Amino acid sequence: MADYLSFALDRIAAKTLPCHWIVTPDGDQGYEWCPTCGYYMVRNLRRRDKRRREDYILDGGWRTSHDTTPICHNCGALLDGAMTEYCAEEEIAYYREYGLSDRPDIDALYLSEIIGAMGWDYGGKEHEDRDFILSLAQQLLPAAPTAGGGDAE
Protein backbone atom coordinates (compact mmCIF):
# COMPACT_ATOMS: atom_id res chain seq x y z
CA MET A 1 0.00 0.00 0.00
CA ALA A 2 2.85 2.40 0.80
CA ASP A 3 4.22 2.09 -2.75
CA TYR A 4 0.81 2.91 -4.23
CA LEU A 5 0.36 5.92 -1.94
CA SER A 6 3.85 7.18 -2.70
CA PHE A 7 3.16 6.92 -6.44
CA ALA A 8 -0.20 8.69 -6.06
CA LEU A 9 1.35 11.43 -3.92
CA ASP A 10 4.09 12.01 -6.50
CA ARG A 11 1.39 12.82 -9.07
CA ILE A 12 0.06 15.75 -6.98
CA ALA A 13 3.33 16.76 -5.31
CA ALA A 14 4.93 20.16 -5.73
CA LYS A 15 7.57 20.23 -8.43
CA THR A 16 11.18 20.51 -7.39
CA LEU A 17 14.30 21.87 -9.03
CA PRO A 18 17.69 20.14 -9.14
CA CYS A 19 19.76 20.75 -6.02
CA HIS A 20 23.16 22.40 -6.43
CA TRP A 21 25.91 23.57 -4.11
CA ILE A 22 28.92 25.78 -4.62
CA VAL A 23 32.47 24.59 -4.19
CA THR A 24 34.78 27.46 -3.28
CA PRO A 25 38.57 27.58 -2.77
CA ASP A 26 37.77 27.13 0.94
CA GLY A 27 35.44 24.12 0.42
CA ASP A 28 31.67 23.64 0.15
CA GLN A 29 29.64 26.55 1.53
CA GLY A 30 27.04 24.24 3.05
CA TYR A 31 24.07 25.84 1.28
CA GLU A 32 21.77 24.41 -1.35
CA TRP A 33 20.89 26.41 -4.45
CA CYS A 34 18.45 26.13 -7.34
CA PRO A 35 20.16 26.15 -10.77
CA THR A 36 19.45 29.85 -11.44
CA CYS A 37 20.48 31.23 -8.04
CA GLY A 38 23.54 28.96 -7.97
CA TYR A 39 24.63 30.18 -11.40
CA TYR A 40 24.37 33.85 -10.40
CA MET A 41 26.05 33.27 -7.04
CA VAL A 42 29.04 31.58 -8.71
CA ARG A 43 29.19 34.40 -11.24
CA ASN A 44 29.19 36.96 -8.43
CA LEU A 45 31.87 35.11 -6.45
CA ARG A 46 34.08 34.85 -9.53
CA ARG A 47 33.74 38.59 -10.17
CA ARG A 48 34.73 39.43 -6.60
CA ASP A 49 37.72 37.04 -6.49
CA LYS A 50 39.30 37.26 -9.94
CA ARG A 51 42.57 35.69 -8.81
CA ARG A 52 40.81 32.42 -7.87
CA ARG A 53 37.81 32.71 -10.19
CA GLU A 54 38.24 29.23 -11.70
CA ASP A 55 38.10 27.69 -8.22
CA TYR A 56 34.40 28.57 -7.80
CA ILE A 57 32.29 25.72 -9.17
CA LEU A 58 28.56 25.11 -9.26
CA ASP A 59 28.29 21.43 -8.42
CA GLY A 60 25.38 19.02 -8.04
CA GLY A 61 22.27 18.79 -10.12
CA TRP A 62 21.59 15.23 -9.05
CA ARG A 63 19.55 13.73 -6.23
CA THR A 64 21.36 13.31 -2.91
CA SER A 65 20.28 12.57 0.67
CA HIS A 66 19.53 15.43 3.05
CA ASP A 67 19.03 15.72 6.82
CA THR A 68 16.63 18.62 6.21
CA THR A 69 14.19 19.29 3.41
CA PRO A 70 16.29 21.09 0.77
CA ILE A 71 15.25 24.57 -0.34
CA CYS A 72 17.22 27.19 -2.25
CA HIS A 73 19.23 29.38 0.11
CA ASN A 74 18.33 32.46 -1.93
CA CYS A 75 14.85 32.15 -3.42
CA GLY A 76 13.31 29.40 -1.29
CA ALA A 77 12.48 27.09 -4.22
CA LEU A 78 11.88 23.45 -3.33
CA LEU A 79 14.84 21.31 -4.36
CA ASP A 80 15.04 17.64 -5.27
CA GLY A 81 16.60 15.54 -2.54
CA ALA A 82 15.96 12.30 -0.73
CA MET A 83 15.24 12.46 2.99
CA THR A 84 17.51 10.59 5.35
CA GLU A 85 15.79 8.58 8.07
CA TYR A 86 16.69 11.39 10.51
CA CYS A 87 14.98 13.98 8.30
CA ALA A 88 11.91 11.74 7.93
CA GLU A 89 11.68 11.37 11.72
CA GLU A 90 11.85 15.15 12.14
CA GLU A 91 9.13 15.64 9.52
CA ILE A 92 6.94 13.02 11.22
CA ALA A 93 7.32 14.91 14.51
CA TYR A 94 6.30 18.11 12.70
CA TYR A 95 3.20 16.48 11.21
CA ARG A 96 2.27 15.01 14.60
CA GLU A 97 2.40 18.48 16.14
CA TYR A 98 0.89 20.58 13.34
CA GLY A 99 -0.93 18.20 10.97
CA LEU A 100 -1.31 18.90 7.27
CA SER A 101 -0.59 22.40 5.99
CA ASP A 102 -2.67 24.55 3.67
CA ARG A 103 -0.39 23.45 0.78
CA PRO A 104 -1.41 19.92 -0.25
CA ASP A 105 1.22 19.89 -3.01
CA ILE A 106 4.04 20.43 -0.50
CA ASP A 107 2.53 17.95 1.96
CA ALA A 108 2.31 15.38 -0.86
CA LEU A 109 5.99 15.94 -1.68
CA TYR A 110 7.14 15.56 1.93
CA LEU A 111 4.86 12.61 2.74
CA SER A 112 6.10 10.76 -0.36
CA GLU A 113 9.69 11.41 0.69
CA ILE A 114 8.95 10.21 4.25
CA ILE A 115 7.44 6.99 2.91
CA GLY A 116 10.53 6.48 0.74
CA ALA A 117 12.96 7.17 3.57
CA MET A 118 11.47 4.91 6.23
CA GLY A 119 11.93 1.15 6.06
CA TRP A 120 9.01 0.32 8.32
CA ASP A 121 9.63 -3.41 8.18
CA TYR A 122 9.39 -3.75 11.94
CA GLY A 123 6.93 -3.03 14.76
CA GLY A 124 6.94 -0.61 17.68
CA LYS A 125 7.02 3.17 17.25
CA GLU A 126 7.84 2.81 13.56
CA HIS A 127 4.56 0.95 13.08
CA GLU A 128 2.66 3.86 14.67
CA ASP A 129 4.56 6.36 12.51
CA ARG A 130 3.80 4.36 9.38
CA ASP A 131 0.08 4.21 10.11
CA PHE A 132 0.03 7.92 10.95
CA ILE A 133 1.83 8.97 7.74
CA LEU A 134 -0.24 6.63 5.55
CA SER A 135 -3.45 8.08 7.03
CA LEU A 136 -2.24 11.63 6.26
CA ALA A 137 -1.38 10.55 2.72
CA GLN A 138 -4.84 9.09 2.23
CA GLN A 139 -6.39 12.42 3.35
CA LEU A 140 -4.57 14.21 0.53
CA LEU A 141 -5.68 11.89 -2.22
CA PRO A 142 -9.09 12.06 -3.85
CA ALA A 143 -11.40 9.17 -3.09
CA ALA A 144 -11.23 6.32 -5.55
CA PRO A 145 -14.31 6.00 -7.76
CA THR A 146 -16.69 3.25 -6.74
CA ALA A 147 -17.88 0.49 -9.04
CA GLY A 148 -20.94 1.54 -10.99
CA GLY A 149 -19.90 5.20 -11.04
CA GLY A 150 -23.30 6.63 -10.07
CA ASP A 151 -25.51 7.36 -7.13
CA ALA A 152 -28.03 4.73 -6.10
CA GLU A 153 -31.61 5.85 -6.53
Largest sheet: 3 strands, antiparallel
Q: Strand share of the residues?
A: 5-15%
- Classify the helix fraction into a percent range: 40-55%
Strand order of the largest sheet: 2-1-3
Q: Let me know the average pLDDT.
A: 89
Shape: elongated
Task: Give a structural overview.
By secondary structure, the protein is mainly alpha-helical. The protein folds into 2 domains: 2-14 and 82-140, no CATH class; 20-66, no CATH class. Helices cover 45% and strands 10% of the residues. It has 5 helices and 5 strands; from the N terminus they run αββαβββααα. It has helices at 2-12, 35-48, 85-98, 104-117, 125-140, and strands at residues 20-24, 27-28, 57-60, 65-66, 82-83. The strands form 2 sheets. A 3-stranded antiparallel beta sheet has the order 2-1-3, covered by helices on one side. A two-stranded parallel sheet has the order 4-5. A hairpin with a 2-residue loop joins β1 (20-24) and β2. The radius of gyration is 20 Å and the shape is elongated. The relative contact order is 0.18. The model has no long low-confidence stretch (mean pLDDT 89).
